[in-house]
Specification:
- The chain is built from 6 helices and 14 strands.
- The chain is of the alpha+beta class and 251 residues long.
- The strands form 3 sheets. Strands 8, 9, 10, 11, 12, 13 and 14 form a 7-stranded antiparallel beta sheet that branches.
- The longest helix is centred in the middle third of the chain and has 23 residues.
- The two termini are 16 Å apart.
- The protein binds guanosine-5'-monophosphate.
Length: 251
């Protein structure tokens, strides 16, 4: 059997060269990290759940006309995605104050914001992904003004979609992070939603009880992370009922 070429290994995923040019295989690991990898663990089944959930969200986005890198799921832990040039920004959309915004601005967690607020962080682990302004982004050439207009529009469309999908299953979308990729099509280039959308990159709170169903369960030691993600998957109908608590693990 031929060994696949590993392109990149991150904290939660491995990227391999795909079967056709312009494609990449995205493998979801069970590793969980927080606080810039200062806290680490392996959570059985997390990769399987995030692979399925990211597929679900990316497919939904495609259906409403938001371009994404997702092509198809290959197996329990892998999906085929379009290769793209990742813009070195974490694009964060917030509907309610939480996490770093609450800390930075002294706003109580859970306070509804007057409108969705979009923030940008420079993707650099060594620097701890610092918050940056559009001035930094333009001055350092990370994205053009046209890119920024497109990124804002993509971010708000993803927010509307994700908020609606979550609301329908009794979950509040507090905030989330996406990454954006650039693809070239002949003389044109366009931006697409890349990386993953999963409870690793969103804050999801049960509307009735406020229970956290996202990576904060791990960050703040609030219980079993795989159970929380399974609950999200169960409500969305992403996992069959028999698989709810213990997804079959195939590496
Ligand atoms: P905060 O800035 O409050 O830490 O995070 C805001 C939102 O973006 C949260 O939903 C959080 O999960 C997500 N987020 C921020 N940075 C990262 C990151 O480096 N990786 C992942 N997976 N999510 C992030």
């Amino acid at each position: 059997m031929a060994r696949r070429k590993k392109i990149y290994e991150g904290k939660a995923k491995i990227l391999y060269e795909g079967p056709e040019p312009g494609t990449i295989v995205q493998y979801f690991k069970d590793d969980a990290t927080a606080f810039n990898a200062e806290k680490k663990d392996v959570i059985d089944g997390k990769g399987v759940l995030n692979n399925r959930l990211s597929e679900f969200f990316m497919n939904g986005l495609t259906q409403i006309g938001v371009p994404t890198h997702f092509i198809r799921r290959l197996n329990m832990r892998e999906q085929l995605v379009r290769s793209c040039e990742i813009i070195p920004l974490e694009v964060i959309v917030r509907n309610y104050a939480a996490g770093s915004m609450s800390k930075r601005l002294g706003i109580a967690e859970g306070t509804q914001l007057p409108r969705p607020i979009v923030e940008y962080c420079y993707k650099d682990d060594a620097l701890g992904d610092p918050l940056v302004t559009e001035e930094h982004i333009a001055a350092f050439g990370w994205a053009s003004q046209q890119d920024m207009d497109d990124i804002l529009s993509l971010a708000l469309r993803v927010n509307d979609f994700m908020s609606g999908v979550m609301l329908a299953v009794g979950i509040r979308l507090v905030d989330f992070k996406i990454e954006i990729g650039r693809v070239y099509e002949g003389d044109f280039q366009r931006l697409i939603v890349a990386d993953e959308i999963s409870p690793d990159s969103c804050r999801l709170w049960d509307i009735e009880t406020g229970q956290k169903l996202d990576k904060d369960v791990f960050r703040r030691d609030l219980g079993n992370l795989a159970d929380a993600y399974s609950e999200v998957a169960r409500r969305l109908g992403v996992l069959p009922k028999s698989n709810v608590t213990k997804p079959t693990l195939i590496n």
